[in-house]
Amino acid sequence: MPGVRHLVLVDISGYIFRAFHALPPMTRPDGTPVNAVFGFTQMLSSFLAEHRGSHLAGVFDASRTTFRNEFYPAYKAHRPDPPEELVPQFALIREATEAFGVAQVEAPGFEADDLIATYARAFVESGGEVTIVSSDKDLMQLVRPGVQMYDPIKRRAIREAEVAEKFGVPPNKVIEVQALIGDAVDNVPGVPKIGPKTAAELILAYGDLEAVLANTAQIKQPMRRQNLEQYAEQARISKRLVTLDDQAPMSLTIDELAVRPPEPAALEKFLRDQGFRSVVARMGLGDAAGDSGSRARNSAVSAAQAAAAPVAPADPTAAPFGAYETVTTPEALAAWIAEATAAGVVGLDTETDSLDALNARLVGVCLATAPGRACYIPLRHVSAGASQGDMLEVPAEAAPPQLPFEATMAALRPLLEDPAVLKVLQHAKYDLEVLAQPGNGGIAVGPVDDTMLISYAMEAGKHGHGMDELSRLHLGHTPVPYDQVTGTGRARISFAQVPLDKATAYAAEDADVTLRLWHILRPQLREAGALALYEQVERRMVGVLRDMEIAGIKVDGVELARIGEDFVSRMAVLETEIHRLAGRVFAVGSPKQLGEILFDEMQLSGGRKGKSGAWGTDAAVLEELAARDVPLARAVLDWRQLSKLKSTYVDGLTAQLDPRTNRVHTDFSMANTSTGRLASTEPNLQNIPVRTEEGQRIRRAFVAEPGHVLMSADYSQIELRLLAHLADVPALREAFETGQDIHSRTAADIFRLAPEAVDKEARRRAKTINFGIIYGMSAFGLAGRLGIGAGEAKGIIDAYFGQYPGIRAAMERLKEEARLQGYVFTSFGRRLWIQDIGAKDPVRRAGAERAAINAPFQGGAAEIIKRAMVRVPKALRDAGLGARMLLQVHDELVLEVPEAEVAETAALVRQVMEGVATLRVPLAVEVGTGRSWAEAH
């Protein structure tokens, strides 16, 4: 309304870090990082297009320390330094703020939040209204008549009702609640065991913090009452920390905040200098394609802007699914490319003729620019009756109307490689590998977001992260099934044979669903505490694993054949011995026949029949019999081991060997485990036995290229180091810090032996319990492992916990956290959901409790090696070294290294791997090299 005074205060600091973490690494032509600058300009330009008051200011933090650190030095003390890629962007963001015509305010010794509080108070007192552009919960205490907030990500206003929904109290009580709950991110201590719900109940019941502390005697819950009494002063300090100071110095007067329009030429120059063509296009400042763009592309951009491409609605589930467009003309293709470029964010999916990304042929590409707005670009479709031979060449008479492949991929390349357009995919690694293949365009897609990994970063172990499951869970929509368009069994056809109308309905929907999921899930990352995990680890792993899978690892086919022949010979000898022990010939590979011999004919005890009526003869049954000195059981176990190794690794590797390169290319699954670990399939290279001669023989078949060696870099006892860190066990910390043998030290401690008196048996027992404790092993389990009585095993465990009480406390704490929350955390903040922790069945519940104990250790180890994996390739490039990572196997990285660079590479890899995390104990990495993997490990 004319005459209304309206001050818009933009929390620039919040924008900076949100923008930095919201986008993958981007650089302008001179190599300067600009992903935060780009995200900032995207958000600021979009907001200013819709919300420009009479007065406007961008509020900055002037320094890391403020008056709060004077009375509480620990405040925000644990926050790490800004990432090195962000530091050079601070100045550019100030330039961007100036280019947009936004006044800048800051004050040394005060946080941006204090300045926002000050200017909001002053402006309201002068008769105006204020909008604070931020989603920071700490600013919600300022909401009142005349002052509202606006969340630029969720694009919604935050008023008193929204604050009450968030905190359970009105805005004027927010600081009282925050004083009780604290804030781990900022080191605001609060009161232990007081969560948001409890805090709100207390404040509503008693009025404010002091009233709560004055009435602790009335609180019925003993633990709650005790904590409030014990940590009363801590709560008072917390209140001082969270209360914003609205009397901070004002570097600019209110009159100096009056809106001034940006100077178009200066703004356009700034944006073009950074390479932000899509922002230039969206703001109508000039030719989005730049001087090198074609006339057709420029025309398409203008047409797309004139048509006002749909903007994502506040509710991504609101738009209908379909109908979608089939793109079969150059004009339609140009318009979609222009629309996607102007949108700045595009859903992307590929359709292929195979699940093997490295050998799949690209059949079509899907784009989505907004919920409900998507298209399918067919590229290599043939008629439904075409033969496989037709599909390879796609003759004109066998193909439906579609664009020529090479010309279409050339037109798509600028969009798919544009650093200013975010490509959103589900399971991005697959599509990136497909498009990187020379026969599929040879395109290096980026930057990307991956909805599968966004979900996984927040809810590992809670549910699956496939697109169909996420769609049902978050959109309430079941996508078109693949079987519905291709058929099943022998009647199944290749996707290239699917008619275009059905292909479009299926494929474009995938891109649409992916983009909708992104709109819903992306904003949740910060609230779930998973933003840094996703941005700095999971998303960066996509490119790392893509490169590793494309590289593969060389296999000596001749050696593999020799191993196979040896396994066959040894299996034949074992089979003869098995028949002798059984007293007759039978099919060794038949569980049914083996069960009949063991439990019907030999009358052995301990057998259990399954639902089919057959005796169970799985590994656990045979191991139990072997422990009772039943030779037949041990012989069958040995035969099965050889049979599995032959079928999985000898025959399996031979079948999957690329005849052109003699390399195998495993597929690393990124979101299948509940702990964050990677899994390896097709072939699985993570389950080759390490400590058996057979496993070592198989590893000898993995070799380096001529002039190179394989290098194994293996974290030493990483899970035990995490145990010492998490449980803060002084004796274990000392052992790791001084380089002692951890198992000998444990044996000396729990068996009360002098260090020199620890023999192999004592060390073996200590090693078994050290590793078993991480998996929540019971006395019964330890007895089975050590071959001792349950009573003796219980005594060892009691002695262990008696010597290291911190470990028992940590284990009990993990189980309690899982029961209360449904999840536990790794040391690095990843939330791991524990299924069945509330199960009524005691067996399932006990299994869940063991999982709760183990998850932080496995998950923490996974986090550490992933951090190393995203840093090692860059470190190698920066050092000018030619090594490349090939495999990750649990705590081990395998690299292929030029012979002349072994020493320098080993030193660098060890330095990077040991420096990726700071624990209470040092990380240690063992590095070995050799012509084969066996020699290197």
From TrEMBL:
<dbReference type="InterPro" id="IPR002421">
    <property type="entry name" value="5-3_exonuclease"/>
</dbReference>
<feature type="domain" description="3'-5' exonuclease">
    <location>
        <begin position="324"/>
        <end position="526"/>
    </location>
</feature>
<dbReference type="GO" id="GO:0003887">
    <property type="term" value="F:DNA-directed DNA polymerase activity"/>
</dbReference>
<dbReference type="Pfam" id="PF00476">
    <property type="entry name" value="DNA_pol_A"/>
</dbReference>
<feature type="domain" description="5'-3' exonuclease">
    <location>
        <begin position="5"/>
        <end position="260"/>
    </location>
</feature>
<dbReference type="Pfam" id="PF01367">
    <property type="entry name" value="5_3_exonuc"/>
</dbReference>
<dbReference type="InterPro" id="IPR036279">
    <property type="entry name" value="5-3_exonuclease_C_sf"/>
</dbReference>
<dbReference type="InterPro" id="IPR043502">
    <property type="entry name" value="DNA/RNA_pol_sf"/>
</dbReference>
<dbReference type="InterPro" id="IPR036397">
    <property type="entry name" value="RNaseH_sf"/>
</dbReference>
<dbReference type="InterPro" id="IPR018320">
    <property type="entry name" value="DNA_polymerase_1"/>
</dbReference>
<keyword id="KW-0227">DNA damage</keyword>
<keyword id="KW-0235">DNA replication</keyword>
<keyword id="KW-0238">DNA-binding</keyword>
<dbReference type="InterPro" id="IPR019760">
    <property type="entry name" value="DNA-dir_DNA_pol_A_CS"/>
</dbReference>
<dbReference type="InterPro" id="IPR020046">
    <property type="entry name" value="5-3_exonucl_a-hlix_arch_N"/>
</dbReference>
<keyword id="KW-0269">Exonuclease</keyword>
<dbReference type="InterPro" id="IPR008918">
    <property type="entry name" value="HhH2"/>
</dbReference>
<comment type="subunit">
    <text>Single-chain monomer with multiple functions.</text>
</comment>
<dbReference type="InterPro" id="IPR012337">
    <property type="entry name" value="RNaseH-like_sf"/>
</dbReference>
<keyword id="KW-0548">Nucleotidyltransferase</keyword>
<dbReference type="InterPro" id="IPR002562">
    <property type="entry name" value="3'-5'_exonuclease_dom"/>
</dbReference>
<comment type="function">
    <text>In addition to polymerase activity, this DNA polymerase exhibits 3'-5' and 5'-3' exonuclease activity.</text>
</comment>
<dbReference type="Pfam" id="PF02739">
    <property type="entry name" value="5_3_exonuc_N"/>
</dbReference>
<comment type="similarity">
    <text>Belongs to the DNA polymerase type-A family.</text>
</comment>
<keyword id="KW-0378">Hydrolase</keyword>
<dbReference type="Pfam" id="PF01612">
    <property type="entry name" value="DNA_pol_A_exo1"/>
</dbReference>
<feature type="domain" description="DNA-directed DNA polymerase family A palm">
    <location>
        <begin position="695"/>
        <end position="901"/>
    </location>
</feature>
<keyword id="KW-0540">Nuclease</keyword>
<keyword id="KW-0808">Transferase</keyword>
<dbReference type="InterPro" id="IPR002298">
    <property type="entry name" value="DNA_polymerase_A"/>
</dbReference>
<dbReference type="InterPro" id="IPR029060">
    <property type="entry name" value="PIN-like_dom_sf"/>
</dbReference>
<keyword id="KW-0234">DNA repair</keyword>
<dbReference type="InterPro" id="IPR020045">
    <property type="entry name" value="DNA_polI_H3TH"/>
</dbReference>
<dbReference type="InterPro" id="IPR001098">
    <property type="entry name" value="DNA-dir_DNA_pol_A_palm_dom"/>
</dbReference>
<protein>
    <recommendedName>
        <fullName>DNA polymerase I</fullName>
        <ecNumber>2.7.7.7</ecNumber>
    </recommendedName>
</protein>
<keyword id="KW-0239">DNA-directed DNA polymerase</keyword>
